[in-house]
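User: Assemble these into one structure.

Assistant: Restating your components, then the assembled model:
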Amino acid sequence: MNVYSWEMRHNMKSTMIWTVVLIVLLIMYASVYPSMVKDVELISRVMKLMPRAFLRIFGLEDFDLTNILHYLVTISSIYVTLLGSVFSALLVIKLVAKEESEKTAEFLLSKPLGRKSVLAQKLLAIFSSILMLDAILSLASFFVTSYFGSESLDQSRFWLFWASQILLHITVSSIVLCFICFSKRQDSAVSLSIGIVFVLYVFSIIAKLTEKAKLLVYFTPFYYSDGVRIVKYGSIEPIFLLLHFILILASLSVSFIVYSRKDIYV
Amino acid sequence: MALIETHDLTKYYGRHRAVENVNFEVNEGETFGFIGPNGAGKTTTIRILLGLIFPTSGQAKIFGKDCVRDGPQIRKLVGYVPSEVNYYANATVEELLGYFASFYKSVDKTYMKELCARFEIDTKKKFRELSTGNKKKVAVVQALLHRPKLLICDEPTIGLDPIMQNKLLEVLEELKAQGVTIFFSSHILNEVQRLCDRFVMIKEGKIIKIESIEALRNKNYKMVRLQLKDRNQLKRVVEKFGPNVKTKDSAIVFEFFGNIDQLMKELSSLSLENVWIEDPSLEDFFMTFYSEVRS
């Protein structure tokens, strides 16, 4: 487990920075909430004037803004769902792709450790960091919500939302890992992985926007873990849960197979 | 017993051939030179031995184990000094050494400190702050700290100043005396001559020749360059040193095989403006060798 503890030690700082920044964003958004509640009539009138498509993108259609959980989840679709996924993707870059692009793989892989063991320890470090970020963020979110919210919080929906986000981040990191293992050189790893994250995110928006693109919902984990829907119905559909697990398992098994047979050019 | 053996080792990068049908054996306790110009396939061969890349066909074995299948087991007893050193730039040398050591079951910490002291490494510095030479020194310590049975060096003296080069060669000589097998890739002939028992030459991905250093010593020759005071003496030079005398600008150039003492005597009979007597560069050496192989 020496690779795991090395990676944890050397990535703690950046994980903490991400966590703090996201918490600050959360507090910023939440602090606006009380004033919004005061003008709830005005806001709902303004919202009626907006195009339906616009509302649909942000899941604001028939949304109850007086409920802080709904409010929180709506804004979270950007800062937790999207930024959290970017964090997960960058983590994979840092731990796996950089090893090749900065040529340190030559050292790591000439040590008496099999490729699979190296990748498994790195993956564990990636998942641990994601869990750490999400755990701290969800706790902060819990306290902030209790502080700013007027009525009591629906706790089961709140934690279900966070579980869906953790699952999403794990799925995203697995998909990005799979792409990285397949690419021969890692020069464009950052743009590739951020590109994947945004394309999948846009898929989920398109899927929400138009009935015609209904099939698209199955092709993006962002839809599986769409917070607005989950909080609205209080559950994740089993099919999406299953798809999450299939995606994670498939990406990881392909990654392990490819990585252990891959030529490392440094 | 052969410690390293390769059988028809071949590696293609796409269509480009990196090495082809490489066959050689390194015996236990031997210091084995691996010489060739840049791009000849030295590093490719080493990377296959280390399991960083996989052969297209053929096989490489270390300690009788297959380099593809038993990589982790093999690497327990192998130390590797890369030609270009890349470690985690933000870590301090101390942290790095701790990490290096954590890959092996038991590492003698006093031996590690001894090595650091010997190479005058400042362990408090961050890796990115080190000069090329100092990075190389860290790589050498890294390769030795677990007391490997086989040391693979890819142009280890590059980037070191002459004093450190000498120190490194001394350390390698000591290891050799302790029975460590050394696989030494280089394009500097002097080092190979000083250290190695046998060597193999590789060019354009193919092994040209495997020979003992003794044979190389007997092939010892000098490149001689003269500037004569009087151009008319040219004829005498040709008479003395044979037909391979060439004129180049104002100088006369030829290869001299044989007794140096005799060369000096011959030269003293000429009136010279200037004289250079040099060891052949690897290029010259290769040309001579290569034409020999072809004929």
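Residues 220-294 of chain B form a domain with the Alpha-Beta Plaits fold (CATH 3.30.70).
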